[in-house]
Specification:
CATH topology of the largest domain: Alpha/beta knot
Structural class: alpha/beta
Distance between the termini: 54 Å
Order of helices and strands: HHEHEHHEHEEHEHEHEEEHEH
Largest sheet: 7 strands, parallel
CATH superfamily of the largest domain: SPOUT methyltransferase, trefoil knot domain
Shape: elongated
CATH class of the largest domain: Alpha Beta
CATH architecture of the largest domain: 3-Layer(aba) Sandwich
Number of helices: 11
Strand content: 15-25%
Number of strands: 11
Strand order of the largest sheet: 7-6-5-10-8-11-9
Length: 261
């Protein structure tokens, strides 16, 4: 059993947790908790390292099922709760923390989602989760967007990193090249007069969601063919990025799937 918080495996996970450059250099994601680790395994990902506390996992049926999956797997080590807590990001870890390679999935047909300097990690993670659920074919994150490999983004994304193609830390020239195949590029803009449901989401299209404070940047607007908004009756001037983006993504899904048996 790994008991020491100074163990090399604990230090490795902690360095990935705390240092974005370490995560980027080897394309690693640090996951903790039964749900996130279980979803990664279900997606076919092979862990680089797993530390787990059997007694903690056995407290729930889901944890016990995950414990059975770990038996005999390489790079999986029993650890003390203290060692796991030292490697984890949450205050009350669920008895498991792991490092997985972040797969570089090929773009798929479907809507392109651009996150334009969306800085809140919770909003970024929620948008990634919604993107997966809505069948987005590629997510493009510009520089200034929250680190998509950070623990907070990973928790909010709930496994989306293993199922939706994501490209991060991009300049607008790179994003623009990806948008070249999209004849329709919609920018979410609270001041726009065109409602989001009037857009034609059945055609190849992209959606740009801007930062919480400033909206879509001037660079993003230069690529937009249309600006769209979400009509509201209340006193709020706008919705947060995750809510607005999710509403639009599922309208796009509704239009694309309408009439299918």
């Amino acid at each position: 059993m790994i008991a020491s918080t100074a163990n090399p495996h604990v230090k490795y996970l902690r360095s990935l947790r705390d240092l974005p450059r370490e995560r980027r250099s080897e394309r690693s994601l640090v996951l903790e908790g039964v749900r996130l680790v279980g979803d990664a395994l279900a997606a076919g990902a092979t862990p680089r390292l797993v530390l787990y506390a059997p007694d903690q996992l056995q407290r729930t049926a889901e944890g016990a099922a995950l414990l059975a999956q770990l038996a005999g797997r390489p790079h999986c080590f029993v650890a003390s709760p203290a060692a796991i807590a030292a490697a984890a990001d949450t205050r009350q870890p669920q008895g498991i923390v792991a490092a997985f390679p972040w797969p570089e999935l090929a773009p798929r047909p479907g809507l392109r989602l651009v996150l334009d300097a969306v800085q809140d990690p919770g909003n970024v993670g929620t948008l990634l989760r919604s993107a997966e659920a809505a069948g987005v074919g590629l997510v493009l994150c510009t520089r200034g967007t929250a680190d998509v490999s950070s623990p907070k983004v990973l928790r909010a994304a709930m496994g989306a990193h293993f199922n939706v193609p994501i490209r991060a830390d991009l300049d607008w020239n790179t994003v623009g090249a990806e948008l070249g195949a999209c004849p329709l590029v919609y920018a979410a803009d609270a001041a726009a007069t065109m409602p989001y449901y009037a857009a034609d989401w059945k055609q190849p299209a992209a959606l740009i969601i801007g930062s919480e404070a400033h909206g879509v940047s001037a660079e993003g607007l230069s690529y937009a063919t249309h600006r769209i908004s979400i009509p509201m009756l209340g006193r709020a001037e706008s919705l947060n990025a995750a809510v607005a983006g999710s509403i639009i993504l599922f309208e796009a899904l509704r239009q694309r799937t309408r009439g299918r048996s």
